[in-house]
Amino acid sequence: AYWDFRGLGAPMRMMCIYAGADCEDVKYEALKKPRGSGWVAPVWEKKDKPKYKKSNALLQLPYVINHSSGEVVAQSNAVYLYLGRILRLNGSTSQEQLANEQVLFHLHGMWMELRDLVYPFGGNKDEESFLEALGNHFTTWLPGHYEKLEDWLRQRDTPFFAGQQPRTADFHVWELMDQQEAMAHAYEYDSPVATYDKLQAFYSKFRQLSRLQPYFEGQDSRLPINNKMAFFK
Asked: What is the pLDDT of residues 103-150, one digit of tens each?
């Protein structure tokens, strides 16, 4: 379960489709308050969060419920790794599992910095400051991360980040890259991945995976990238 946009929910939606999992994708909507400023999510805040918090005190979005075992799992990386175990996407060897975990946790830092860029509760309080910050984002911040990811692929000499087959971290990498490409295009910046050969190859190969075409051809891939209050949606 997650909000009704891509964000952190897209990787787990892709994982489930790739693995052919039988699951229900619950999406919550944020609504502008009728009076004053701010946002509310009645179904999440008043109904589901109080109910599931009885089983998991750390509950937040995204979360996953295993209806066979009764387990309620929250926190994004924990959700990804839990789904990876259930769907056998965390790696078939200890080396793959270690690589998968390292990349996944590096990505969380990338996502947090991106979140702070595009939402008004981060470092940018208005549209003007967001637009001013974009230049530094695309010329300094993002290349720093892409250089590390490019070198990682070069060191391992594999098409995916943990080996020869897509693993949990790959879904998160691809989603973050696609969000960056969309934002660069929207604000007339050059493609962020254009100068990184290994990342370009990964980005293209992942997009062409046959088992993911139902996702890319469906409505979930066309959801807004961020929530309604973000500068870039």
From this structure: 999 999 999 999 999 999 878 999 999 999 999 999 999 999 999 999
* The two three-digit tokens of residue 213, written as one number: 């075409």
pTM of the predicted model, to two decimals?
0.96
Q: Which residues of 102-139 are buried (b: 16+ CB within 10 A; e: fewer)?
A: ebbebbeebbeebeebbbeebebeeeeebeebbeebbe
Cα within 13 Å of Cα(213), Cβ side: 4
At what angle are helices 142-156 and 197-207 packed, to 10 degrees? Answer: 80
Alpha helices for 139-212 (secondary structure H): 142-156, 168-186, 197-207
Length of the chain: 233
Structure tokens at 87: 């769907």
Residue-wise burial string across 10-37, b where 16 or more C-beta atoms lie within 10 A, e elsewhere: bbbbbbbbbbeeebeebebebeeeeeee
Q: Contact, 44 vs 61, CB < 8 A? A: yes
Mapped onto helix, strand or coil, the DSSP state of residue 232 is coil
Give CA–CA dist 224/233, Å, rounded. Answer: 6
Query: Residue type for 228, please?
Result: K
Residues forming a β-bridge with 72: 65
Other beta carbons within 10 Å of 61: 20
Q: How many CB atoms lie within 10 A of CB 93?
A: 10
Query: What whole-number distance in Å separates Cα of residue 170 and Cα of residue 97?
Result: 12
